[in-house]
Amino acid sequence: MNIAVCIKQVPSTESKIRPASDGKDIDRSGLSYVVNPYDEFGVEEALKIKEQLGEGTVTAISIGPEKVSDALRTCLAVGVDQAIHIQDDAIHGSDGFTIARILSAALQKENYDIIFFGRQAIDDDSGAIGVFVAELMGLPHAAGINKLEIHPEDRRAVAHRQIEGATEIVETPLPALFTCQKELNEPRYASLPGIMKAKQKPLTVWGLSDLGIDPATVGATQARITVDQITSPPVRTTGKIIEGNASEAVSELVSLLREEVKIV
Ligand SMILES: Cc1cc2nc3c(=O)[nH]c(=O)nc-3n(C[C@H](O)[C@H](O)[C@H](O)COP(=O)(O)OP(=O)(O)OC[C@H]3O[C@@H](n4cnc5c(N)ncnc54)[C@H](O)[C@@H]3O)c2cc1C
Prior knowledge:
Elements: E1 2-6, E2 9-11, E3 33-35, H1 37-53, E4 57-63, H2 68-78, E5 82-86, H3 96-107, E6 114-118, H4 129-137, E7 141-151, E8 156-163, E9 166-173, E10 176-180, H5 192-198, E11 203-206, H6 246-259
Parallel strand pairs: 1-4, 1-6, 4-5, 5-11, 6-10, 7-10
Antiparallel strand pairs: 2-3, 7-8, 8-9
Helix pairs in contact: 2-5, 3-4
The structure holds flavin-adenine dinucleotide (FAD).
């Protein structure tokens, strides 16, 4: 099986996020970065499939600036065979649809049997890129899967999706694209030998010209959506403890809900 996993480098979940001074982006100074946690489920699933079948190649692909190579090296350290870093100054300012177009062009250069994405990137949270790519490539897809069975003998996959109050089981021929939800597996950590081996594994850098994409068709000027404003959530006010016995507390609570909160 030839498997691709698209990964995004995102600010670590422990980062303190603040809007940038222009209010159009987040302030990236002093942030530390990690592989998007949902994408780690894709990496783990790809490695498990390769191990179960005893053959295959797993490729991690990411678009982003120079530092994205750290995220790709992390993937190589946990067992991914090769990585592709798409880097080009013209990409800066691109919206999600353009990112999907670029990823589709990269994925089309190879015949992948399975393509994994995260369900969403935890920074921009669009939850859209995987589905955009499936549509652009004309591939069947299942979004937000939490279990996957691969049947190589008849090139088919069975995926489970958690929907409101039920599990939906879908079947698709391969090639297919899946976006990964958190119960799918338990991502492994990199071992010391894995980290050492990662340094020798191939990490290819492609620009837009390698993908046959005209730089004039990407970037901020071509974005179909623009970010108007990013603001911090309102500061939560402190809670109120209602004193007194139960009947006093209930009448005080009802009067607060009526007069202050105005919800009854
Ligand atoms: C007007 C505008 C300007 C922007 N400018 C920039 C910019 O200058 N620099 C910048 O970094 N971002 C920029 N962004 C954000 C960038 O377009 C988002 O990364 C993109 O929209 C993906 O959305 P998301 O991260 O919410 O992805 P989601 O749809 O939530 O991501 C789903 C999955 O797609 C995959 N994925 C997402 N992004 C990538 C990627 N880059 N490489 C590989 N796989 C990926 C991952 O598997 C991820 O789990 C901009 C967005 C807009 C709207």
